[in-house]
């Protein structure tokens, strides 16, 4: 490079630094003192691990191409999403090759039939990309909400062992230990159902539910086309309907005679035309998972139950349970039955408590 070119480059760099310092000084003159922020990345290097992960999440949404060159856990998330998308595409193509237009087997076949009917419409929303997104939404929405409810529900049972004991008593009375729980048991277990209802009310996995649209002018001064987000917590924690809205109390869903009390305020799956499509499936999964776990295991906390915090943590738009550890020894009677059937032992070995 010629000397004049090097001098010009140095002057440009020097002037750029002066302009940056001058603008930064004038912009921050009236602000309280704080750590110096670098260009582009700001104070990212001074953030803690948790805050840094949040910063990277926001930066990934703003600059996805830029984040491809930055190492971190976001690469694993993208890799997993790509693998899921590839798996779904394989299933879609498999359905396409064996499609029977008059005998749809499932959602994918029905979507394919609609795609064929509207293939010449440029405004049609029935495309392969939308089919992939719909399938992933169906899977991810059900997995995350059910797992979060169960995880937080088990934490609640750790804090209240007396409630766990009552549920197990009802399991012993209705189901016993000789067979697995089934949905036929659902209507015969009011206390277990009350506990499940209270878990969903108290946890409120999605406090701010799916957006709705106002299709006509209303008396509430909401114009047609206004987007409305139902705040489910406003009804799930209504003190007029639930005497102890901030406490976990299964009796809020029980009549005095012990039967299950239904409430119009109980809407963890939202309301209206955008109510969760998998509500019946979710109810079945929660009932079968919880009863199966408590039929076979006793849940015990590693710490004093008094110090267990059951308050859900809000993450983006869902309530997630906090991390915790538990001890879940198999029930002694089940261990004894297994040893007798598998090994022919008449008595429990001394090493089993």
Give a short summary of the structure.
With 353 residues, this protein is mainly alpha-helical. It is built from eleven helices and six strands.
Count of DSSP E strands? 6
Mean pLDDT: 77
Radius of gyration: 28 Å
- Largest beta-sheet characterization: 2 strands, antiparallel
Shape: globular
> Distance between the terminal alpha carbons, to the nearest Å?
82 Å
- The class by helix and strand makeup works out as mainly alpha
Q: What is the helix fraction of residues, given as a range?
A: 40-55%
Strand content: under 5%
- Major sheet strand order: 1-2
Low-confidence stretches: 38-50, 348-353
Number of helices: 11
Oligomeric category: single chain
What keywords describe this structure?
353 residues, two-stranded antiparallel sheet, 49% helix, 4% strand, 11 helices, mainly alpha, disordered C terminus, two-stranded antiparallel ribbon
Architecture overview:
The protein is mostly helical and 353 residues long. Helices cover 49% and strands 4% of the residues. The strands form three sheets. Strands 1-2 form a two-stranded antiparallel sheet. Strands 3-6 form a two-stranded antiparallel ribbon. A two-stranded antiparallel ribbon has the order 4-5. α6 (128-159) runs parallel beside α10. The longest helix has 32 residues, at 128-159. The chain starts with a helix and ends in a 10-residue tail after the last helix. The relative contact order is 0.08. Residues 38-50 and 348-353 have low confidence and may be disordered.
